[in-house]
Amino acid sequence: MKSRIPVLAALAALMAASPAPAQRAARGPKYAIKLATRAPEGSAWMRRFELMNGEVLEATGGEVGFKVYPGGVLGEEKDVLFKIKVGQVDGGGFMGFGVTEICPDADAMMQPLQFETYAEVDAVFQALRPHLEAQCRKNGFEALGWTEIGFSYAYSAVPVRSLQDLRGAKPWLLPGSDTVEALFRKGSVSGIPIPVGDVLTALQTGLVRTVFAPPYAAVAAQWFTRVRYRTDARILYSLGGILVALRAWEKIPEAHRAAVLEITRRHMAELSRDVRRSDAEALDVMAGEGVETVTTTDEDMREFVKVSREVTAESVGRRFSAEAHAIVTARLADLRAAEERADRE
Prior knowledge:
There is one protein chain. α3 (44-59) runs antiparallel to α12 (254-288), α6 runs antiparallel to α14 (322-344) and α8 (178-186) packs across α13 (298-315). This protein is an alpha/beta fold. The protein has a single domain (7-344), classed as D-Maltodextrin-Binding Protein, domain 2. 51% of the residues lie in helices and 17% in strands. Strands 1, 2, 3, 4, 7, 8, 9 and 10 form an eight-stranded mixed β-sheet that branches. A two-stranded parallel ribbon has the order 5-6.
C-alpha cells in the first residue's frame, strides 16, 4: 500500500510555520539529494526519477527532493564515486561498476550463466537483499532502491552456440568488466577491448563481430542493426540501484526518511518491471528486423557452464564473500529442488 502524507494535512501542518510546498519547490527543497547517473534524458530511469521526485516532494511537504545529473555529465561511475567521496554529489543511480564498488557482495548476483529465469532472480535477490543493504551501510551508504539492468545476451554476425564458437567470433570486451575479463581468460577467449561509445563503429567496420547487452540496450544503441543472430543463453544478469552516502542521508530529517524510502524503493521496483517490458519489446523488434535466435542445447553450453562455474568459484572470497555466495547458492538449490519435485508429481 502506498504511504504518503495527505496533501491537505501536509498543507495545514506547514501553513503556520513554513512556506507552502509549491513555494518551497519553486526555490528548491531544503534537503536536496544530489544524484549522478549514466542514464540519458528521456530514458526509463529518468522518467522514474521524475515521478519519484514529485512524490517525495509531495510526501515531505516540499522539504526533500532529488537533483539528478543525467547522461554521464559528471563522468563514468568511477568518477561519480570520487565526487561522492569529496562531497560534490550525494550518490548515484548506478548500473554496475558503482554498485559492486560500494557493495561488493552484489557481485554474487551477477555471475555468468547463474540464473535461468526471472523467478530465480527475484527469489534469490529477496534472500540476499538484507545482507546487501547491511553491507552498504557498513561501507557508508544507504540503498534507497535496487533495480534491474537485466539479462545480457550475445548478438553476433555469425551463429554463436558454444564457447568454441565465441572464440572465433571476434567478441567485444568492455574495459574494466572484471567478470567478463575473467570469463574470457578462463575460457581462452580473446576479447577486443572497446569503450561503449565506440562499439557501433567497431561493428560497422568489422573490428568486432559479437557484442553483449540486454535487449533494450542493444536496440537503443542500434547495435542490433549490425548483427544477424542472438544467442538464447542468458549469459549475465546485472543489478543497479540508487546508493546515497550516509552522511547525506542522515541530514534528511528522520521524520521524512520512511516516506522517502517507501517511495524510492517502490519506484525502483517498478523500474525493474519497466526494464523487463522494454526487453521483451526489444526482442520483438529485433525478430521483426530479421535477427535470428540461435537456440542452444545443454551439450552446446557444457564447456561454457563449466568455465563459468570455475570463474564464480575463484571469485568467492576475493570479489564477494562466501556468505553472499552461500545465500545465493542455497536459495537457488531450494528453488530447483522444488521444481524437480513438482515435475515428478
